[in-house]
Amino acid sequence: MKINKSKAINDAVISTARMQGFVEGFERGFKQGFEQGFKQGIEEVKRKVALRLIKMNFPIEKIVEATELDLETIKKIESEHK
Fold this sequence. Notes:
Largest sheet: none
Structural class: mainly alpha
Strand content: under 5%
Number of helices: 3
Mean pLDDT: 92
Order of helices and strands: HHH
Shape: rod-shaped
């Protein structure tokens, strides 16, 4: 049986390129997913803190300042938990 060295080398190069592309794509997707999840987690913590401050009767302006959430978001959180 005769082995076509050129084809074998070409197949190896393609296989390596595919694997490299897969790894790069996975790393990029993981990083984007992690960043998005991290941002969502921060927003959830801000909302929980805002709710806690609302329940403690803090002035809305101070809640906006403390959480860095906008006034509309604070009012929405307040109305959802009355």
